[in-house]
Amino acid sequence: MSVDSLRRAAKESVSGLPGAFWWLWTSTLVNRLGAFVATFMALYLTLDRGYSASYAGLVASLHGLGGVISSLGGGVMADRFGRRPTLLLAQTSTAVAVAALGFVHDPVAIAGVAFLVGMASNASRPAVQAMMADIVRPEDRVRAFSLNYWAVNLGFAVSSMGAGFIAEYSYRAGFLIEAGMTLVCAIVVYLKLPESHPAAPADRGTRAKDDVGLGTVLRDRRFMAVVTLSFLVALVFQQGAVGLPVAMGRAGFTSADYGSAIAVNGFLIVALQIPLTRVIEHRDPRRLLVFSSLLVGVGFGLTAFAGSVGVFALTVCVWTVGEMINAPTQTGLVVRLAPAQGRGRYQGFYTLSWAVAALVAPLMSGAVIDHLGAGWLWAMCAAVAVVAALGYGLLMRRVPAGSGAPAATAAARAEEVGAG
Fold it and tell me: Rounded to two decimals, what is the model's pTM?
């Protein structure tokens, strides 16, 4: 492909999206560029503070538990109070909590602040996804979610490398840098992003009547099936971060070997996510979700036969392509199934599926590897991914072919679910 063709393809990938999207995208990128806590929390607690690995695991679990709780809370806030206030509160709270984490010394205090960091940081995700759906045209949403996913991975890749150098100098400096970057995100939201909730402030009385409650979402059997399938896929994806390093270590590989293999994931997403989006954005989402789930199953299943770093990296390539297809397509499906006035709550449940998977995955990998061996873990990952593919195939037969999200009110939505 010529340079002009590449330039034209890149321009087509980013053209046509509103300015508000790009400010939201910038906020996401800055946030991920400043990520530090999630990457180096275990090293900070064990190497710098001298705590045990068990205590570090407990703190990580509390951090994840905070995210589970705030997934739904952030979605409710995004619908009830607006996307913009929720983002501002979540980001400023995250900045304060992360900064505090660099100064507390008591183990109980560290665990408590880590829990608050998990709550505050995860509360912004439903609001970001709901605002993105509000401001982007239905036909551009898969592309927009894909670009946002690309920003998340680019920021994380850069921050992981930078955080390593910062940690050698001072862990506290890393916490303060993350707090400062998160405040920058809040400033961008405050200065550049207007409220995007479909209901205007003057219509709050009408909105209260048509509001979507958590019960409405729970009664939406089709959507809860999507959440369940999302959990299954996320449970498999998480094994790249929790099961793979343990399995490689048991097989005699070093942490550097694991780092080399998993680095392929970030590199491929940064290099291929945008051009891949041009291929998938107008294709049948049912086929994409089925194919991506099967690809993930094949990638993790083949890990059982890996005997060198190169083969491990090859399996990472396979499931990473599945990840790049699945992530924007699945997020777009959530938007399609959510009524406009309930996008925050619907996105909150979707975020919850990933947060719960992050809690369950370490327990799953540890138990299976200890009692059955790594080969069984990869066989189970393949089986779970196949179940998810079959589920998507059956579920998507009932989803309308249109690309836009339903415009029904909560009452109409409840009637549709009851009839289904």
Answer: 0.75
